[in-house]
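SUBJECT: A protein chain and its fold
Encoding: whole-number codes for local backbone shapes
Chain under study, with its fold:
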Amino acid sequence: MSWDDEIVVRDVTNAGLVVSDRINRDVAAQTDLEEALEASRYTSHPYSTHPRERWPPLVEVMDTWELPPVLIERYNAAGGEGTALCGVFPEIRRAWASVDNSLFLWRFDKWDGQCPEYSGEEQAICAVGLAKSKPGVFVEAIQYLLVLATPVEGVCCRGSGDGTDPYEEVSLQLLPEYTIPSDGVTMTCITCTDKGRIFLAGRDGHIYEMHYTTGSGWNKRCRKVCLTVGLGSVISRWIVPHVLKFGAIDPIVEMVVDNERHILYVRTEDMKLQVFVLGPKGDGPLKKVAEEKNLINQKDAHYGGRQSTGSRPSNRSAKPSIICISPLSTLESKWLHLVAVLSDGRRMYLSTAPSSGNSGAVGGLSGFNNSHHKPNCLKVVTTRPSPPLGITGGLAFGALSLSSRTQNEDLALKVESAYYSAGVLVLSDSSPPTMSSLLIVSRDSSTQSSTSAGLGTTARTSRALRESVSSLPVEGRMLYVADVRPSLDMAATVQSLYSELEFSGFESSGESSEKASGKLLARGDLSTQHILPRRRIVVFSTMGMMEVVFNRPVDILRRLLESNSPRSLLEDFFNRFGAGEAAAMCLLLAANIVHTENLISNIVSEKAAEAFEDPRVVGMPQLEGSSAFSNTRTAAGGFSMGQVVQEAEPIFSGAHEGLCLCSSRLLLPVWELPVMVMKGGLGTSNAMSEDGIVACRLSSGPMQVLENKIRALEKFLRSRRNQRRGLYGCVAGLGDLTGSILYGTGSDLSAGDQSMVRNLFGAYTRSIQTGDGRTSNKRQRLPYSPAELAAMEVRAMECIRQLLLRSAEALFLLQLLCQNHVTHLIQNFDVNLRQELVQLTFHQLVCSEEGDRLATRLISSLMEYYTGLDGRGTVDDISARLREGCPSYYKESDHKFYLAVEFLERAAVTSDDEEKENLAREAFNFLSKVPESADLRTVCKRFEDLRFYEAVVRLPLQKAQALDPAGDAFNEQLDAGIREHALAQLQQCYEIITSALRSLKGEASQREFGFPVRPAAQSTLNQASRDKYIRQIVQLGVQSSDRVFHEYLYRTMIDLGLENELLEYGGPDLVPFLQNAGCESSQEVRAVSAVTSIRSPEGLSGEPIPAKQTKYFDLLARYYVLKRQHVLAAHVLLRLAERRSTDAGDVPTLEQRRHYLSNAVLQAKNTSNSGGLIGSAQGAFDNGLLDLLEGKLAVLRFQIKIKEDLEAIASRLESPQVTSESAQNESCSESNLNADTNFANTVREKARDLSLDLKSITQLYNEYAVPFELWEICLEMLYFANYSADADSSIARETWARLIDQALSKGGIAEACLVLKRVGSHIYPGEGVVLPLDLLCLHLEKAALERLASGVESVGDEDVVRALLAACKGATEPVLNTYEQLLSNGAILPSPNLRLRLLRSVLVVLREWAMSGFAQRMGTSATGASLILGGTFSLGQTTVINRGVRDKITNAVNRYMTEVRRLALPQSQTEAVYRGFRELEESLISPLSLELY
């Protein structure tokens, strides 16, 4: 075994699972009183007696007091015939008694010689009560009001003290303004609520409430209100004298208040019980909800006449009466609300709920937090038989005897008075022939012995209520009983610790801490004896007062050890309570953590320690089912009955079980509860409020008490370990058993943690031996030797010890935070961190990495608080306390870290630059020694402020190396989860460096961690300084050998827009990084990496590239451009242009693709201009790359144009004007409108499809251009593709025809001519028959003639021919040849008018031809020549034309003049054309023209 004191987180975590399991089981074992009572009906012995032979008593008289002499004298003076009352006020530690009109008050717990007397009225006192003072009515010193009732009036007296000791001195003073008349009603009792309400019960059967305020003037300060009568009864009370009233009156004899459920119970003289509710918060109006009279007979009806086992025949001669009622706290039962004690000793348990039952939730953590139901009835749920008579020493603690008495009517209990509180019943028995005695019934804390357990107890009987009965003789009659409440300090501590537990029963607000802590006693002694003192009650009898104490099991054990009792008694004690519980009590005594009135002697502590280590009573660890020891206990599931056991599990001894019990009960009040709470603000548990205040849930006092107990227990365990006592000595030389289940296999515990914890800690009971006392032979071999089992138990106890030590240190840390105002410490925390802190449980703080992280963050704030500019101390001052109190949270490395922080503080305030740098370097040197444990997110911000970027870069890289020395982050042989975890740790370190880059870039990251920025650090840097420090960080980072960090740095620089710095200072791994970062799969990485040896990038074209990776390809292209590697740049740009995306919102626009392709073309041209590639590798240059890129760019332009046209079509169809016109058209049916809408949607969908990716020219033509009749683009694509599949150019001719028809339908001849000019000029001259002039000419001329004749359109004579000339880019001969071809074919032109129009167009062509010839000679254009010559030819003009051209034109003119004359048309129609030809001929044959030619 390892004997060091270092806390191992794994061991603490596993021990934490044990504590959680033990706590859950203890809570589940808590039984609701109703369930326990129901189960006890099926047991033969519901009562037991404490063993008397040589055993300390369970109940004993601690002290007795005589009544004050002045009281006895006054009573004797009255002759015993006056009115005498008595009682106890435990709230102020006072007993009281009244004789006639005098009230005496004295302290019952100690006689101080003071017994003040109050006798302010002449009337006899008939009722007395004590009420809490309402806040705001009296001064703060008046805490309680003493209410006295006489037959005439009610009086209030105030009680006040000096405030130092609330019980030391109480003064009484009459409040005359707070007096009310009784109106002839004698009050029988007074009861008060925790909210200060005062209720008085009258002999007239009504309930009154005394209201008091601070009123003045005509407003009475005090008044009496009757709460149980209507208006008629009130009038009757004032008009009809009391003596004249008739009818039976049932006076009220007892009133009790349930302050948790806000219910008032009333008992009348005729045994009638009434139930009143006080509102949901206890301050509402009184409302009766139930009244029952024959409750005693309800039991028979409820159970059908069945008598509970163990009860004696009732006394038939006298009907039993109710002598006492008491409310049950929610801690005892949720469904039983009231207990009524009968005169024969029986107890009736009643409920105000319509149905009872716990629905299986009782015993769990969630079973005690149900909201209170609304009372609406009162019924008997069950009846507990009376305790037995004749309690003698000969009784065994299992069976009951009546000491040879016959059971007859005379043996029935005759209870004169009774008292019930938190599970304890006190009865004053006066049955013959014995003298009066006190029967005290309390819950039996002992468990069943091993012999009785072996009989096969069931789950029902194990939950049955078993009570122990004790008897004390008493002189006189018992008059009053009250609990002696614990001290204020202890009560406050207990309430603070247990107030927020769901099953604590401290739900009622306004209840005093002494009263609330007393209710915890109902949970039994075993679970509370470590924190609560012995229970004490004070009994007021006619002969005096006595204090009775209840010895807890630990007190009995202490007495046994003190008295040197024989070992048999100790063994009986262990058998009675169980080895685990008895061992836990030994720990309480040995570690001296139990509350006692007297100090525990060292002898008792040593004997308790020896008993804890004695295997004869606690047993030894063994395997389940083995029979190594005779005093073994049954396993949780009973004995095996001979079944085959698949795997033997080790079961530890009672010592280990006792340690688990003791530890879990100590940690119960804090374990699963948060360490911090949010006070104030509007936030809830689900939404953190920023204006709330975070504070420690517990104050320092309770945490100090708990820490002391835990440290005492851990100190005891450590001392036994160091002394090698018990099993520690047995296994001291064995070493670590690495081959056992203690550590699993090797260091990997992830797969077997749960099994290991179950085997190591889960079994708290030892198995019994087989029936014949021999080990079962069905297990072939024992997996573990006794030495190994002992070592396992020692290891398990060491884990618990470490958990205790860690818990004590956590409590110390919380106290330190509480003392230094945790609200101030966390004021700089963000909302998320505050939320984590408020949700952090103590279990997580002790056992989890998250708790350790938050503790480190809190310590950081605490150190800042001490070492800040305010100068509260130095690092050494606070470090000494932290290292002493919580070394597992504050280690030596933390000390070095905060020393470095101190140097940084000094550097921040110095003005000397050299000293500043020296201090920063000293801090850097300290942190370099502990980089793995330092919170670098804090200090590196400080280094940034000091501009000491060497530390900002090197410290995180050192920590990264320390966190992952084996390189697990990029070891592909390891599991993915391990790699991801290692990489996440590295990234946290890298983020510190990149955060500095962001700050310098001007994108300050959120300051989640660290100290606030000092004023000196907020100086503004100019751009030159920023660039300098950025270069320094990048250069320092690139110098590192951490390639994972290089990638992280490169990504950050890209995100920050530091591409230029990256390309300039990037390391040799920059290009592989950009290639890898831009590819998703390894196949893409290899392909991109091999671009330098690949001529074509077609293998990568069109691959999906996410948007986040596009920037890496952009940067890679820029890198290639800067390095003059144009081919590689063109390849990357081409891939960017052709990339596809799986995300619809991440698709690049066509314009972006055009931009990429344009740049790719530019890079290809640069490559061509450079004459080669790197190293003159002429063969590496692809000659077709430029053509390929230009072709793709042209096709993309077609795609853009088609998309624009489709969008224009859809917009036109969806425009309001088109819609309104369609609606106004009566002939337009609804189906046509729907068709237009569907067509528009189709067009939109096609346009969107074009935006997704690049299409081929075939797709664009067949799937988009042709279906949507985009004939102009079709012609352009045919021309671009040099389409020659059909020899007669039928496709081109047909497309032209459709285009012209489309234009004619849209805008007539004018539109058609414009289209012809635009499209023809673009594709002319072209290769192949692309421009069918004959078709275009004939089509347009016919259409022009028809439109002109019909008057549809005014068409000029020269519109068509000039459009043809423009389409041919001014070339006249092709146009003239077209006209000549048409005129020569009479079949094509049968119409004279059409021929005349064509001849007129020929005239225009000839003129243009002549003008172009003249323009060539003059060095101008045809238009310029026309302007020079006046625009037209005339007889008086001479034209300078080439002689050959002139001859051709002259011949053509003569021929066409003859053609004009041949037309079968009137001369009036042909004369203008003929004259035009004549004028042209004359101008051509003039002498000037001949000279020029």
Notes: The mean pLDDT is 76. The longest strand covers residues 171-181. Residues 786-819 form the longest helix (34 residues). Residues 424 and 442 are 5 Å apart (CA to CA).
